[in-house]
Write a structure and sequence with these properties.
The structure holds 2 protein chains of 2 kinds. Chain A is mainly beta. Chain A contains no helices and 11 strands. In chain A, a hairpin with a 5-residue loop joins strand 4 and strand 5. Chain A is globular and about 40 Å long. In chain B, strands 2, 5, 6, 10, 11 and 12 form a 6-stranded mixed sheet that branches. A 4-stranded antiparallel sheet of chain B has the order 3-9-8-7, with no helix packed on it. Classes of the chains: A mainly beta, B mainly beta. At the A-B interface, strand 5, strand 6, strand 9 and strand 10 of A face strand 5, strand 6, strand 10 and strand 11 of B.
Chain lengths: ~110, ~120
């Protein structure tokens, strides 16, 4: 059983389109995250949700809108895609007690053309 | 704010060579420290962790010791294999649990091991 699964794995789309990435975790964790990894492999947190409530929003453009229908799911919707949005997006989940690690999905490689 | 600094890559080694990847951190209090590994085309996997000073994390022949006095968590392996080729990330989380706790990553270090 995959602990954190995200779909799709690859996404190629044109500028201006709207797209969504889905994420699900079966670990019973109370917090989920979206990270963006750029072409130099740098990882930057975008959002975190705790029990369906938005906790962290790291100055991400409002074209990006996370949605958490329940604490096992955190989806990412992106409006009006731009070339600079091309990256790998990782979903992660974690139990937010001190010292615990995050579990990552396999990533979604988004290419905007 | 909290931050993690790790050595620039790429690091290129021959098989069976000794590996060190340096990592230092800035944080208040007593953060937890982690090393993650990312193999090509895959997500991040936890390699090892340490949650208090002087703890040593170890896994798959890799080790790192939490050094509070030097604010460091250097990754070492005595004899690398080609299959260790990957990107390695050092990370920290602050000492407080709760909803705002997050992982802060270093910039990653690419390791390439040649046969």
């Amino acid at each position: 059983d995959t602990a954190v699964s995200q779909t799709p794995k690859y996404l190629v789309t044109q500028m201006g389109n709207d797209k969504s990435i889905k994420c699900e975790q079966n670990l019973g964790h109370d917090t989920m995250y979206w990270y963006k990894q750029d072409s130099k492999k740098f990882l930057k947190i975008m959002f975190s949700y705790n029990n369906k409530e938005l906790i962290i929003n790291e100055t991400v453009p409002n074209r990006f809108s996370p949605k958490s229908p329940d604490k096992a799911h955190l989806n990412l919707h992106i409006n009006s895609l731009e070339l600079g949005d091309s990256a790998v997006y990782f979903c992660a989940s974690r139990a937010t007690t001190s010292g615990t690690e995050a579990f990552f999905g396999q990533g979604t490689r988004l290419t905007v053309v | 704010g909290d931050s993690v600094t790790q050595m620039e890559g790429p690091v290129t080694l021959s098989e069976e060579a000794f590996l060190t990847i340096n990592c230092t951190y800035t944080a208040t209090g007593y953060p937890s420290l982690f090393w993650y590994v990312q193999y090509p085309g895959e997500g991040l996997q936890l390699l090892l962790k340490a949650t208090k000073a002087d703890d040593k994390g170890s896994n798959k022949g890799f080790e790192a010791t939490y050094r509070k006095e030097t604010t460091s968590f250097h990754l070492e392996k005595g004899s690398v294999q080609v299959s260790d080729s990957a990107v390695y990330f050092c990370a920290l989380s602050d000492q407080y649990g709760g909803a705002t706790n997050k992982l802060i990553f270093g910039t990653g270090t690419l390791l390439a091991v040649q046969p």
